[in-house]
Design goal:
The complex is a heterodimer of chains A (112) and B (112).
Chain A: E1 4-7, E2 10-13, E3 19-25, E4 31-37, E5 44-49, E6 56-57, E7 65-67, E8 73-78, E9 87-94, E10 102-103, E11 107-111
Parallel strand pairs in A: 2-11
Antiparallel strand pairs in A: 1-3, 3-8, 4-5, 4-9, 5-6, 7-8, 9-10, 9-11
Chain B: E1 3-6, E2 11-14, E3 19-21, E4 23-26, E5 32-38, E6 44-50, E7 56-59, E8 62-65, E9 75-77, E10 86-93, E11 100-102, E12 106-111
Parallel strand pairs in B: 2-12
Antiparallel strand pairs in B: 1-4, 3-9, 5-6, 5-10, 7-8, 8-9, 10-11, 10-12
The chains are: A mainly beta (112), B mainly beta (112).
Chain lengths: 112, 112
C-alpha cells in the first residue's frame, strides 16, 4: 500500500546545478501538488496539477518547473538551483479537489 | 487574504498531561478546517477535520471544535503519550478554490 512516494529523500546540490524530484502515486488520483516547507512557515504551494497533462502555478512557482505526462507521476524540476531553494519538499495527491490529501514523506534538499 | 496562525513550538509536556495547541484563522468566507500530523520521518497525515461552525472533529483521542465566533480551531487531547510526539499543522480550505492554507506547524515533544 505505497500511497505517495517521493524520490529522492535527501539531496545536496551545488548552486547552478539542476535536478528533478519525482512524485508517484498509486491511488489513481487526479490532483497532485508540490509544496515546500520552510522553518517557521506553513507549507507553500509551488505548482499543482488537476489531471494528466495539466499544470498550474501555485503561490511560489518561480525557479521551478513541473510536468504531469502520466497520471501517476508529477515531476518537479529545478533548472538552476539557488541556496534559497534549500527546503523540504512535499508532494501530495487527492482524488478530487474536496477530498483528503495524501502526502509523501518529503525530500530534504540542500543547495550549497 | 486567508491565513492560519498557530502557537509557536516546541511544546514540551510530560506523558499523561493535557494538551492544547492553539490555531486561529482569518478567512473571507466559511472555510473547512483541518489538523494534520507529521510523525518523524513521515509525510503529513490528516488527523481530523471540521467543515462548518460548531462541528467537532475527533480522532485518536484528539479533538478540535470549529469556533466561528473566535475564528479558532484549537487542538486538544486529555492525556498525551510519547507516541504523540510529532509536528501538528492547522490548515484551512476555502470552497472557492479548494486550496489548503497552512499554519507554520507546532512541534510537540512528550517526555516519559
Amino acid at each position: 500500500n505505497a500511497g505517495v512516494t517521493q524520490t529522492p529523500k535527501f539531496r545536496v546540490l551545488k548552486t547552478g546545478q539542476s535536478m528533478t524530484l519525482l512524485c508517484a502515486q498509486d491511488m489513481n488520483h487526479e490532483y497532485m501538488y508540490w509544496y515546500r516547507q520552510d522553518p517557521g512557515m506553513g507549507l507553500r504551494l509551488i505548482h499543482y496539477s488537476v489531471g494528466e497533462g495539466t499544470t498550474a502555478k501555485g503561490e511560489v512557482p518561480d525557479g521551478y518547473n513541473v510536468s504531469r505526462l502520466k497520471k501517476q507521476n508529477f515531476l518537479l524540476g529545478l533548472e538552476s538551483a539557488a541556496p534559497s531553494q534549500t527546503s523540504v519538499y512535499f508532494c501530495a495527491s487527492r482524488r478530487q479537489r474536496n477530498t483528503e490529501a495524501f502526502f509523501g514523506q518529503g525530500t530534504r534538499l540542500t543547495v550549497v | 487574504g486567508n491565513s492560519v496562525t498557530q502557537m509557536e513550538g516546541p511544546v514540551t509536556l510530560s506523558e499523561e498531561a493535557f494538551l492544547t495547541i492553539n490555531c486561529t484563522y482569518t478567512a473571507t468566507g466559511y472555510p473547512s478546517l483541518f489538523w494534520y500530523v507529521q510523525y518523524p520521518g513521515e509525510g503529513l497525515q490528516l488527523l481530523l477535520k471540521a467543515t462548518k461552525a460548531d462541528d467537532k472533529g475527533s480522532n485518536k483521542g484528539f479533538e478540535a471544535t470549529y469556533r466561528k465566533e473566535t475564528t479558532s480551531f484549537h487542538l486538544e487531547k486529555g492525556s498525551v503519550q510519547v507516541s504523540d510526539s510529532a509536528v501538528y499543522f492547522c490548515a484551512l480550505r476555502m470552497d472557492s478554490n479548494y486550496q489548503l492554507i497552512w499554519g507554520a506547524g507546532t512541534k510537540l515533544i512528550i517526555k516519559p
